């Protein structure tokens, strides 16, 4: 530590906040300076004109400037625990005039020590005038204990989870050796910091239960802001180490200046400027006529405050563009700063990322450069995303090029982790990344901060099971409380699910749910605090159609239909319900197809390298741009991955029986694109022979795989019944009849033989909802630990999805010249491309890695850190199971050929 003026070398200048052993110049960064660095970033992020500050001030009833000073002051206390000599021991500094280490082991994190010091001292500091308490505010300390805990929790919990002291004792960690008292040094820093920033303590509001409840709901956003400020304020490139002692007032301007620089470098200097929606011609060079849904989205009057839109329409109605229209209108009307597109799978996220292209730029002014980031677990395998983030920009003095370089730098920082990705102006990713904000994952508050002022667009909400629906309801309620808006897209949605979604939204707004009455389809539901409107929408004639249903009763009959389509020169898809059924059908079709190379198997049990290759091949053969010569005689045997992710279509389709919404979705891939003259579309459904009074084994007897997937046999029977009654899937005219005929059927209408299966499925649905409620954070309780239960316990297993069985990630290995290597080599993402995901029971069938390869496996894990969390598998050493790039993982000794 050095000081030009010894009079400014105070006790707190003897404590380091960060240190870098072996550094040549400054050996450490004083704790006071790091505290001010972080506070300066938070100060800049809370500029009075920024929407985040506007929202917080309005919800808390405090003017922006006083609120800014209070929150920045509290943020400056986030590392108060580092004044502990126990923490200083960790830094192992042996510098003159610095706090000498005491030789005590560092057994508690500094964030927890900060809570300990604050809890012990804040009231003493209040009485001593250190905190600059407002005149006349003499509320008893006992009445402020609980409110003060709630107020401080987001700041001490800046490492991704709230903290509490438990049974710690102050003297065990904060030393007073006569020469230097840790607690006194902390008090002196707090006093000087308070004198500089002049915080305004809202004592009366802290005693108001209604105000405190509002603060608790906002505390997640405040915790995310504190974490972001700490991350940016710890960036050594922008906040270089400084050991020099000086007055806080002299360092503060330097910190503010550097905070402005780091915000600009990472894309947070100012939000992009939205512009009003001015028609599709503003987006596309070609003349585009809006669909009825898109026109309704453009004309619908917006409500005040947070609002929810549910868009129900058939495939091809332009739901995505309609959502973008609403999103741009909401942005321009001040209802958000950015967007997040949440898709059900990584594949659909990739497709949306590509589809969005540079469209997001059209939502903002020409001088804005909104960041666009892809957020899901395998995004580094998306080549378009890799190019956009990692592309090197040529050096030039040209302003435009320099600006692009800055934009690339922002994108790189935001793309560094999925936690940061939701902070981008425009994000595209899986729904899981958003749902994780409501689960006790570390830094989940950063995700909620990213979503707080965004328009949240969620596609295919009908596909969510009861577990995900429960998590979604919580997320929507919280999003409404935070002032955000949401747009939900679906082709088929049972009325009960729609009522639950609007009910969750209105709960978040603090108003009673209103019953829904409309049976129209297509339908736009618009829900705000004032009212819920159900707006019927016309159908575009090109997408209104009827797909006839033809029933098949055996696999052999299905194979004959597929081969007949091949002989007629058509392309055909067979969607199976299980991978094993798909493999068996593919094997039989290859043996009988006149050109076996025109047969393709597509399912989820491939290594990522082969799944990507097969996806590309599916798009090449069946995609929108595929030519008739290539399509002739093509066959794909696939599972639900085909219906979920790819913009493809077939001349003919066979499908195993499945619940009605899935059959509607699959039929949407049948003759999806205009290709000239074709025979009328027919969906050929493989199902058990119809029985008015079936037995309990009606489905399992002939379709064991389907029974294993859809355990509630009544859904399958009701689907077959309504389709036999209607004879076709007629959209949109009979959409409600089909969906409600299955999902709103009375239990009295079910065959008695299905009572047990239906009862078990209902119980599983209740269990799934209960597990979601148990796993989820209660966001209304605020960002703090309550009682003895800590939901952030590391050993807890939870996720955004709840299957009947946990899945396991497996990495495929092979030997090369007696050395163990990854399945894929010579690729920067070889470890990810070599993995596949299996059910836990399937993974247990794989042979364990031979002991003689243990050392080589350890070396691979050192090289690829992510491999520490996956199961290794060497197929060539497995006498039972195998892998083939054409068939995927096989659980039989002999791979199919």
From TrEMBL:
InterPro entries linked to this entry: Cas3-like_dom, CRISPR-assoc_Cas3_HD, CRISPR-assoc_Cas3_HD_sf, DEAD/DEAH_box_helicase_dom, DEAD_box_RNA_helicases, Helicase_ATP-bd, Helicase_Cas3_CRISPR-ass_core, P-loop_NTPase
Domain HD Cas3-type: 24-232
Gene3D superfamilies in UniProt: 1.10.3210.30, P-loop containing nucleotide triphosphate hydrolases
Keywords recorded for this protein, A-Z: Antiviral defense, ATP-binding, Endonuclease, Helicase, Hydrolase, Metal-binding, Nuclease, Nucleotide-binding
SUPFAM superfamilies linked: P-loop containing nucleoside triphosphate hydrolases
Superkingdom to which the source organism belongs: Bacteria
Keyword Zinc-finger belongs to the record: no
One example GO MF annotation: metal ion binding
GO biological process: defense response to virus
Family: In the N-terminal section; belongs to the CRISPR-associated nuclease Cas3-HD family. In the central section; belongs to the CRISPR-associated helicase Cas3 family.
Record-given protein name: CRISPR-associated helicase/endonuclease Cas3
Organism: Kushneria marisflavi
Phylogenetic placement of the source organism: Bacteria, Pseudomonadati, Pseudomonadota, Gammaproteobacteria, Oceanospirillales
């Amino acid at each position: 530590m050095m000081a030009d003026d010894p009079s400014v070398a105070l006790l707190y200048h003897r404590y380091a906040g960060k240190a870098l052993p072996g550094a040549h110049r400054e050996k450490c960064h004083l704790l006071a300076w790091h505290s001010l660095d972080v506070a300066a970033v938070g100060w800049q992020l809370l500029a009075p004109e920024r929407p985040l500050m506007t929202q917080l001030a309005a919800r808390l009833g405090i003017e922006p400037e006083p609120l800014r000073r209070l929150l920045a002051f509290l943020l400056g206390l986030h590392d108060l625990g580092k004044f502990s000599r126990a923490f200083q021991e960790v830094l192992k500094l042996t510098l003159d005039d610095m706090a000498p280490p005491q030789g005590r082991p560092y057994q508690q994190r500094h964030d927890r020590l900060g809570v300990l010091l604050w809890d012990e001292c804040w009231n003493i500091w209040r009485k001593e005038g250190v905190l600059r308490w407002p005149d006349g505010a003499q509320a008893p300390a006992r009445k402020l204990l609980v409110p003060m805990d709630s107020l401080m929790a987001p700041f001490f919990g800046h490492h991704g989870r709230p903290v509490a002291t438990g049974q710690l004792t102050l003297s065990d960690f904060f030393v007073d050796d006569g020469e230097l008292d840790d607690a006194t040094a902390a008090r002196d820093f707090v006093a000087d910091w308070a004198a500089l920033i002049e915080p305004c303590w809202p004592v009366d509001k802290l005693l108001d239960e209604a105000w405190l409840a509002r603060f608790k709901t906002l505390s997640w956003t405040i915790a995310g802001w504190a974490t972001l400020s700490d991350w940016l304020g710890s960036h050594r490139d922008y906040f270089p180490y400084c050991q020099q002692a000086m007055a806080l007032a002299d360092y503060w301007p330097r910190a503010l200046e550097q905070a402005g620089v780091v915000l600009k470098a990472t894309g947070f200097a100012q939000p992009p400027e939205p512009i009003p929606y001015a028609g599709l011609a503003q987006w596309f060079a070609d003349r585009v006529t809006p669909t009825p849904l898109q026109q309704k989205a453009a004309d619908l009057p917006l409500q005040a405050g947070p609002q929810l839109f549910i868009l129900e329409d058939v495939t091809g109605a332009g739901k995505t563009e309609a959502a973008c229209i609403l999103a741009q209108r909401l942005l321009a009307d001040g209802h958000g700063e950015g967007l997040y597109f949440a898709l059900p799978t990584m594949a659909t996220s990739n497709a949306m990322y590509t589809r969005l292209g540079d469209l997001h730029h059209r939502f903002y002014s020409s001088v804005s450069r909104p960041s666009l980031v892809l957020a899901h677990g395998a995004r580094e395998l998306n080549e378009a995303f890799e190019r956009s983030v990692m592309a090197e920009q040529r050096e030039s003095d040209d302003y435009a090029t320099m600006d692009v370089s800055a934009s690339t730098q922002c994108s790189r920082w935001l793309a560094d982790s999925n936690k940061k990705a939701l902070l981008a102006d425009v994000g595209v990713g899986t729904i899981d990344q958003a749902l994780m904000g409501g689960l006790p994952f570390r830094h989940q508050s950063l995700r909620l901060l990213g979503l707080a002022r965004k328009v949240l667009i969620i596609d295919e909400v009908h596909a969510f099971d009861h577990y995900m629906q429960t998590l979604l309801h919580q997320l929507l309620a919280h999003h409404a409380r935070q002032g955000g808006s949401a747009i939900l897209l679906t082709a088929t949605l049972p009325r009960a699910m729609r009522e639950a979604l609007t009910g969750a939204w209105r709960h978040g707004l603090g108003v009673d749910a209103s019953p829904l009455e409309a049976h129209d389809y297509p339908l736009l539901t618009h829900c705000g605090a004032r009212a819920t409107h159900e707006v019927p929408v016309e159908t575009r004639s090109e997408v209104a159609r009827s797909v006839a249903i033809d029933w098949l009763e055996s696999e052999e009959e299905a194979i004959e239909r597929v081969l007949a389509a091949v002989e007629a020169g058509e392309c055909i898809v067979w969607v199976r319900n299980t991978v094993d059924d798909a493999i068996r059908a593919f094997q039989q079709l290859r043996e009988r197809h006149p050109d076996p190379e025109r047969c393709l198997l597509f399912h989820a049990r491939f290594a990522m390298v082969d799944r990507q290759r097969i996806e590309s091949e599916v798009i090449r053969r069946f995609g929108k741009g595929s030519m008739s010569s290539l399509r002739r005689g093509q066959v794909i045997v696939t599972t639900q991955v085909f219906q979920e992710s790819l913009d493809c279509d077939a001349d003919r389709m066979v499908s195993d029986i499945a619940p009605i919404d899935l059959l509607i979705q699959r039929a949407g891939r049948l003759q999806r694109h205009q290709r000239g003259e074709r025979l009328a579309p027919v969906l050929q459904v493989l199902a058990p022979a119809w029985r008015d009074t079936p037995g309990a084994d009606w489905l399992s007897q002939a379709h064991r795989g389907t029974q294993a997937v859809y355990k509630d046999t009544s859904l399958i029977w009701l689907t077959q019944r309504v389709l036999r009654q209607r004879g076709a899937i007629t959209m949109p005219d009979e959409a409600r009849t089909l969906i409600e005929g299955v999902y709103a059927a009375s239990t009295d209408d079910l065959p008695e033989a299905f009572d047990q299966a239906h009862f078990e499925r209902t119980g599983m649905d209740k269990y799934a909802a209960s597990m979601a409620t148990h796993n989820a954070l209660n966001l209304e309780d605020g960002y703090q630990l309550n009682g003895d239960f800590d939901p952030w316990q590391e050993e807890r297993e939870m996720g955004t999805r709840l299957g009947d069985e946990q899945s396991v990630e497996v990495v495929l290995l092979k030997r090369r010249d007696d050395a163990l290597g990854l399945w894929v080599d010579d690729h920067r993402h070889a470890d990810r491309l070599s993995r596949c995901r299996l059910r836990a029971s399937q993974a247990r069938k794989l042979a364990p890695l031979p002991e003689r390869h243990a050392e080589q496996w350890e070396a691979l894990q050192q090289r690829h850190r992510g491999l520490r969390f996956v199961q290794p598998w060497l197929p060539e050493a497995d006498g039972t199971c195998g892998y083939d790039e054409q068939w995927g993982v096989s659980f039989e000794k002999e791979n199919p050929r």
